[in-house]
Amino acid sequence: MTKRIGVLAVVAALMPLTASGQGDDYGPYHALLAKECPAQHLELLSPGELDDLIEVNFHDALPGSLQTRLDTADRTEKEACANAVAGLACFNVAYLRAMSDVNLLPRFAKLVCASGLSCKGQSDCARAD
Fold first, then answer.
1. The pTM is what?
2. How far apart, in whole angstroms, are the C-alpha atoms of residue 99 and residue 121?
3. Quick one: average pLDDT of 29-37?
4. 52 domain residue, yes or no
5. How many domains, in total, are found in the chain?
6. Position 78 in a domain
7. Which residues contact 18 (CB under 8 A, 6 or more apart)?
8. Does the residue 8 lie in any domain?
9. Residue 12: inside a domain, yes or no?
10. H helices of the chain, where?
11. Which domain holds residue 100?
C-alpha cells in the first residue's frame, strides 16, 4: 500500500500544474490559436512571452471598464495559484481563464495571432521577418 501511494505521489508531481488543478486549462486558448493561426504554432510560446502579450499588448490596450472586469475575474482565478509551485505558468492560466470568464479569450487569441510571432519549437519563437 505504501509503495502504491509513493507511485501516485510521483505521478501527481509529474502532471502539469494549472490554475484549477484540472486537466489542460490552456485547451480553449490553444483551440482558438489552432483555428486562427495554426501555422504559427503559438501554443509553443514561453510563459514569459505569453505574459508579455497578456500584460503589455492586451490588458493595457483594453478600455478601462474591460480592464476592471478582467482584473476582477483574474483575482478570483489567481486564488488557485496561492499554493501552486507553477509560478508564471499558473498566473498565465489564471489570466486565460479570466479572459474566458469575461468573454475576451477570442479577442486575445486574435491579438496573439496578429503579433507577428511564430514558433519553431517550445519557447523558440520570434517575429517573422
1. 0.77
2. 26
3. 97
4. yes
5. 1
6. yes
7. 24, 25, 26, 86, 89, 90, 93
8. no
9. no
10. 2-14, 27-36, 47-52, 64-78, 88-101, 105-113
11. 18-127
